[in-house]
Specification:
By secondary structure, the protein is of the alpha/beta class. The protein has a single domain (2-269), classed as Rossmann fold (3-Layer(aba) Sandwich). Helices cover 31% and strands 25% of the residues. It contains six helices and nine strands; from the N terminus they run αββββαββαβαβαβα. Helix 1 crosses helix 2 (88-101), helix 2 (88-101) packs across helix 5 and helix 3 packs across helix 6 (245-269). The radius of gyration is 18 Å and the shape is globular. Bound molecules: hypoxanthine. Hypoxanthine binds next to strand 5, strand 8 and strand 9.
C-alpha cells in the first residue's frame, strides 16, 4: 500500500511545480464550486496511477488543481462510494495520497437525510461529529506507523476551529446553518422509517452514504477536517416520505448557492 501511495503522490508532484495544502472533496451540493476555481491542471482519475477506476458510467471523476481565491487547492470532482463496490482501502486511497503530497486540511460535502425534527429540506448541517456504521473499517488490517497510529484518537474528528469560522461566515451572510451528528451507512437503500428512528435514537441528526471513511483516514493521517451536509430529505417520525435520487439532487441543487458561499469563504480565509 505504501508503495502505491508514494507512486501516485510522485506522479502528481511531477504534474505541477507546487502541491497545495488544502483539498476539497466536491460531494453533492458543491459541484458548482468548480466554477470558482481558477484551474491550473485537471487530471482524469483514469490517468492517475493506482486510482480506483470508476464503475459508474458518466461518473468519471477528475482531480483539479488551482486557486480558490488566493489559496492553492486540490479538488476531487467525484468520490468513491462503498456502495459502488469499492473496498474501504479504495474509497480512502485519495486521502492517503493527499497526505503524501502535503495536504493539511480537507473539506468535504455530502447529501444526507435529516432525522432531527428541527431540520427542513434544503438546510445545511455542519457536521460536528459522526457515528460510523459502515460494515468495513478503512483502518482494518496491518497498520503502517508511517501513515498513522494503530489506535487513532477521534475525540475531535471535525475541527472545532473550522466549525467556529464557518458559523461566523454563515452568520455574516445571513445563512441559516444547523449543526449535528452524521451517521455513515453503506446504502444504497435509503432508510426505512424504523431505521431513521433508530439512527435518531442513537444520537444521529442526519444520515448518508459517504464522508465517514474519508474522515477516518484523514484523521489517521493528521489532516484537519471540515464537512457539511445538505439535508435533502427527512426521516423524521411521522413524516417519512418516499425519497428518490432525483429528489435528493433537486434539494441539493437548491441549497447549492449557500453551501458554495460558505465553503468558498471558509477555504479562502481559514
Ligand atoms: N439516507 C441515506 N443517504 C442519503 C439520504 C438518506 O435519507 N439522503 C441523501 N443521502
Amino acid at each position: 500500500m505504501l508503495e502505491k501511495i508514494r507512486q501516485t503522490a510522485a506522479f502528481l508532484k511531477d504534474q505541477l511545480p507546487k502541491m497545495p495544502e488544502t483539498a476539497i472533496i466536491l460531494g453533492t451540493g458543491l459541484g458548482e464550486l468548480v466554477n470558482h476555481i481558477a484551474i491550473e491542471k485537471e487530471i482524469p482519475y483514469k490517468d492517475i496511477p493506482n486510482f480506483p477506476v470508476s464503475t459508474v458510467e458518466g461518473h468519471s471523476g477528475k482531480l483539479i488543481f488551482g486557486k480558490l481565491g488566493s489559496k492553492d487547492i486540490m479538488a476531487m470532482q467525484g468520490r468513491f462510494h462503498f456502495y459502488e463496490g469499492y473496498d474501504m482501502k479504495q474509497v480512502t486511497f485519495p486521502v492517503r495520497v493527499m497526505k503524501e503530497i502535503g495536504i493539511k486540511t480537507l473539506f468535504l460535502s455530502n447529501a444526507a437525510g435529516g432525522m432531527n425534527p428541527d431540520f427542513a429540506i434544503g438546510d445545511l448541517m455542519i457536521i460536528r461529529d459522526h457515528i460510523n456504521l459502515f460494515p468495513e473499517h478503512p483502518l482494518r488490517g496491518k497498520n503502517f506507523e508511517e501513515l498513522g497510529v494503530r489506535f487513532p484518537d477521534m475525540s475531535e474528528a471535525y475541527s472545532k476551529e473550522l466549525i467556529k469560522k464557518a458559523l461566523k461566515i454563515a452568520d455574516e451572510n445571513n445563512i441559516k446553518v444547523q449543526q449535528g451528528v452524521y451517521v455513515g451507512t453503506q446504502g444504497p437503500t435509503f432508510e426505512t422509517p424504523a431505521e431513521y428512528r433508530y439512527f435518531h435514537i442513537i444520537g444521529g441528526d442526519a444520515v448518508g452514504m459517504s464522508t465517514v471513511p474519508e474522515v477516518i483516514v484523514a484523521r489517521h493521517s493528521g489532516i484537519n477536517v471540515f464537512a457539511i451536509s445538505v439535508i435533502t430529505d427527512l426521516g423524521v417520525e411521522g413524516i417519512v416520505e418516499k425519497v428518490s435520487h432525483e429528489e435528493v439532487q433537486k434539494a441539493a441543487a437548491s441549497a447549492q448557492p449557500k453551501m458554495t458561499l460558505i465553503m468558498k469563504k471558509l477555504v479562502e480565509t481559514f
